[in-house]
Design goal:
Chain B: It catalyses: fluoride(in) = fluoride(out). Chain B: GO terms for molecular function: fluoride channel activity; metal ion binding. The complex is a heterodimer of chains A (about 120) and B (about 150). Chain A has 5 helices and no strands. Chain A has about 120 residues and is mainly alpha-helical. Chain A has one domain. Chain B is mostly helical. Chain B has one domain. The longest helix of chain B is centred in the last third of the chain and has 32 residues, at about 110-140. Chain B is globular and about 50 Å long. Classes of the chains: A mainly alpha (about 120), B mainly alpha (about 150). The interface between A and B is large, with 57 and 59 residues.
Chain lengths: ~120, ~150
């Protein structure tokens, strides 16, 4: 990876993290539930888009450098594992077992399902 | 035309908060890319991403619990949460790579490896978050703040 590409990936990650703050804040202001739906939405949509971009790159429709900047950078910074994991544990500690289980395993199943669908689309369906 | 007062805007739309998260997210993503480049996949599994997510989950639990124990989410504590938590650790860890690497294993008909990688990351990650929260509590008990020390 060239230094310029590395810097581009890192800055795209900064932009992705900023988008995450805006989207999560916007969802929090509109939806009031115990389940942190902002992080859920961000991770599911980000996984769908990374699947799509990865499929497009594997099908050689998208140059490898763009896959790195948009995938590892923008979507890598947009989606987050640490917050999702922390929120699941806090739900469990608050004895909201169903919400905790859904936040852990439901988010995983939805994200993998959406990413698989995106991958299939990107590879040409 | 009057410049709108930044303090009247919601937290997630204030310019200095956006700047803190952007700076932290850039650093976190750079660290993740460095590790992802340096550590090769093992049997087609990106172990670097699994390790990054688990370590990041521990550190976020430690950070958020430590900040919460020190007082309400405002001023310098909120700035640290946005820079280090939402920014650095949010950008360092990633969910899209976890989901897509699992999808690639599934597309390769490696069901057992896909399940082990995905469920393993989520379960060990949850244990790590829990341990991070607990470690903050243990540190806090060992070093009581000044007021508590005087009260004794």
């Amino acid at each position: 990876m060239t230094p310029v590409l590395f810097v581009a990936v890192a800055l795209a990650g900064g932009l992705g993290a900023t988008l995450r703050l805006v989207v999560d804040g916007g969802v929090r202001a509109r939806v009031r539930t115990a389940l942190p739906v902002g992080t859920l939405l961000i991770n599911v949509v980000g996984s769908l888009l990374l699947g799509l971009i990865t499929g497009l790159a594997l099908a050689l429709w998208l140059p490898g450098a763009w896959h790195l900047v948009l995938g590892g950078g923008l979507l890598g910074g947009f989606t987050t594992f640490s917050t999702a994991s922390y929120e699941s544990v806090r739900l469990a500690q608050d004895r909201r077992s169903l919400s905790a289980l859904f936040n852990g395993f439901g988010m995983l199943a939805l994200s993998v399902g959406c990413s698989f669908f995106g991958l299939w689309l990107g590879l040409g369906g | 035309m009057a410049v709108p007062n930044d303090r009247s805007r919601p937290v997630h739309l204030r310019w200095h908060h956006l700047a803190l998260v952007f700076a932290g997210g850039t650093v976190g993503t750079a660290l993740r890319e460095l590790l992802a480049i340096s550590v090769p996949p093992v049997a087609g599994v990106t172990v670097s991403i699994a390790a990054i997510n688990i370590v990041g989950a521990f550190l976020l639990g430690l950070l958020l619990e430590t900040l919460a124990r020190r007082g309400p989410d405002e001023g310098r504590r909120r700035q640290l949460r946005l820079l280090l938590g939402t920014g650095v650790l949010g950008g360092f860890t990633t969910y899209s790579a976890l989901a897509t690497d699992t999808s690639l294993l599934l597309a390769d008909s490696r069901l057992g490896t896909a399940l082990l990688y995905a469920l393993g990351t989520v379960l060990v990650g949850a244990a790590a978050s829990w341990a991070g929260i607990g470690a903050s509590g243990a540190l806090h008990r060992r070093r009581p703040d000044h007021r508590e020390a005087v009260a004794r």
